Amino acid sequence: ETVVELQRWLQIRDEGPDGPFFLSTRRGMLSDDALGLIVQSTVAELVDKHPTLADKNITPHKLRHTAAMIMYEDGVSIETLSLWLGHANVGTTMRYLQHSLKIKLRAMNRTMFPAPPSSQALADE
């Protein structure tokens, strides 16, 4: 659904492939402040349906970080993410990834020893 909507938007905005994706009222690139205001107003609209959002400080940077984490957890390589994020080196991207609980749990599960056999299983042998 997202891909279809983004493709539809690309046709509507009519700025060519290298133009800004989201346009300001003057049809130019959005400023950082304008993007921040859009995120804040969208979060404010969603608070009624999702009350836990009221306690969170959601910013464009946090949305960018979250998107990168989801892509990494879904198997996108760190090198690809680094390019996508526009980082000069992979070390910067590594800082994003050190907080992933999902990745830490996956690593821990790979190193877990199997549970010892129960006393009943031993008696049955």
Structure description:
The chain is mainly α and 125 residues long. It has 7 helices and no strands. It has helices at residues 2-13, 32-46, 60-73, 78-85, 90-97, 101-111, 119-124. Helix 4 packs across helix 5. The radius of gyration is 22 Å and the shape is elongated.
Concise synopsis of the structure shown:
With 125 residues, this protein is mostly helical.
Write the layout of secondary structure elements.
Elements: H1 2-13, H2 32-46, H3 60-73, H4 78-85, H5 90-97, H6 101-111, H7 119-124
Distance between the termini: 55 Å
% residues in beta strands: under 5%
Q: What kind of sheet is the major sheet?
A: none
> What is the average of the pLDDT values?
83
Order of helices and strands: HHHHHHH
